[in-house]
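Thread: nicotinamide-adenine-dinucleotide complex, take 2
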Amino acid sequence: MRVEDIKKVLILGAGTMGHQIGFLCASHGFEVALFDVDQGVLDKAMARLEKLADRMARRGAMTQDQARAALARVRPFTDPAEAAAGADLISESVPEDPRLKGRVFAQFHALCPPRTVFTTNTSTLVPSMFASETGRPERLVALHFHDVALTNIVDVMPHPGTDPEATALVERFAEAIGQIPIVLSRENPGYVFNTMLSEWFKAAQSLAANGVAEPRDVDRAWMGVMHAPVGPFGIMDTVGLDTVWKITEFWAKKLGDPQAQRNADFMKSYVDQGRLGVKTSHGVYDYPDPDWGKPGFVEGKKD
Ligand SMILES: NC(=O)c1ccc[n+]([C@@H]2O[C@H](COP(=O)([O-])OP(=O)(O)OC[C@H]3O[C@@H](n4cnc5c(N)ncnc54)[C@H](O)[C@@H]3O)[C@@H](O)[C@H]2O)c1
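Output below.
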């Protein structure tokens, strides 16, 4: 199968990631079936896509006609058999549970043509955790998106049983939807960027949790030396401190890592105060006008 043979993409899960990936595929000319078990989610997703298309057209990222044509290529489904008919590639974005992912892929293995390539957008799992359940492990590859609105870097990651041709096809598909694929040679939880990001977060959290430096001073050091627009705690505010806390807590418990546990407890102290970051307007910083975005922050000047 060549990338030119991929015409129809089936998105499983129309939530935060699924609907955005669907629009990305549609805006690059692919026919998109958006499948979800929840009709309410699909209704919301289609309404969001209209707004997204409108925004893209107003920003000049595409013409009104292109935006409308992209929208017309996306069709919502709650019926799995209808959604699966003629699908060439699946992009799965259902919740982060290996048993659920295995079950959903098995369901679609029975419904999709044998040629269909299965991709998963899992953030923290690895495909080998549910490869055998999919019924076609050789055609399963991780195609992992970051924040679709912010970046076009994606990870392409095979598991030990993936056919290299499937990996190469997914790499070509990623390019066909305007992404820059980073192809991993082997499985790694966290892929490439997130592996570096989590170590960076851990170092920053440890400095603050161990009382070495205040979060704002950790950020000032990073921003000042790297000439970076934002530091680790500023980024954690964008991710959501509840999400950062949950992930830190999960790994602290799983690995029995006492430093990670101190870091998790430190992050929880923000969560307990309802300071979840940008989404609640308060986190390590206060928004919409955080200190780290003000002139003189690195120099330590107060306005
Ligand atoms: N949110 C992010 O920033 C982000 C980034 C990269 C990757 N991911 C990964 O993408 C996946 C989805 O995350 P999300 O944030 O979009 O989650 P979400 O909760 O917003 O969406 C998941 C959707 O899956 C649907 N769903 C549940 N069971 C289903 C089933 N059996 N069949 C079809 N649909 C089903 C739900 O109704 C929901 O709409 C996760 O694996 C996550 O790790 C998330």
